[in-house]
């Protein structure tokens, strides 16, 4: 394979320890054609790598974890990452095939492209992740006419995702059995978004875009179909309910059980074991059994390793 001068030149300046990870969440986990369309777009850029994906039929939600590098100018400001183009193209594919008005699922959501979060990896910093979050937010707001709310390090005052979601009604299901169906919000938003219009398209909804340190996602199945008990346990485990600090939870209905979906915001301080133990204890008080939880993604170390392996495999192939 022959490289022209610019490609070779660029390759020299790419520092593969300045990496960003993007987690891209869409409100679709069932329609294979849609999932394929989004993935095809993600794979069409050889400089961005899908290191993992997670589809959940009951949640009707999917997540793609992508990694690439970030480049700086001579003053150290981030100026380019191949992730920007890939992520915006994935959003376009998602908006073209997901209609929130026809969507239903067990996981809350406000948008067809519900959440995009950037994490710094290896030697990259939060500033770079926040720069990319804001660049993608501007593109999505302007190109697709979708209201975008920035959060955490991408927000001017660091406003957190759960707070914005709560203000917008994210956690309120509109169908019995704790299901979210169709558009569940007024068409004119109660707050001005950071990018895009204040009037929402019911088909596309709202997108949340943020930057923050690594979040571990850990789900614990409860062997009961009683969602009110699952939600009670979820609340007691969460920081908000006076449980474990830095832990956020959601009680979710599954096919023949329920599940506590946990976001561990400081996984090195309060890890999955602590959460598992507390859930088991609280469930036992309700006379319920709990299964061992599962992680829905790799650790940051494994993600970096997978990325390095995938790009070096391609470099050495003829
Ligand atoms: C590796 O190369 C193949 C074929 O050229 C391409 O389809 C794929 O997207 C590349 N993957 C990465 C991680 O660069
Ligand atoms: C709530 O759910 C129903 C489906 O049962 C849907 O038709 C409707 O548009 C949704 N939104 C509101 C605001 O009721």
Automatic annotation (TrEMBL):
GO terms for molecular function: folic acid binding; glutamate formimidoyltransferase activity. Keywords: Transferase. InterPro entries: Formiminotransferase_C, Formiminotransferase_C_sf, Formiminotransferase_N, Formiminotransferase_N_sf, FormiminoTrfase_cat_dom_sf, FTCD. Its EC number is 2.1.2.5. Residues 18-213 form the Formiminotransferase N-terminal subdomain domain. Pfam families: FTCD_N. Residues 216-307 form the Formiminotransferase C-terminal subdomain domain. It is an enzyme of class 2 (transferase). This is glutamate formimidoyltransferase. The lineage of its organism: Eukaryota, Viridiplantae, Streptophyta, Embryophyta, Tracheophyta.
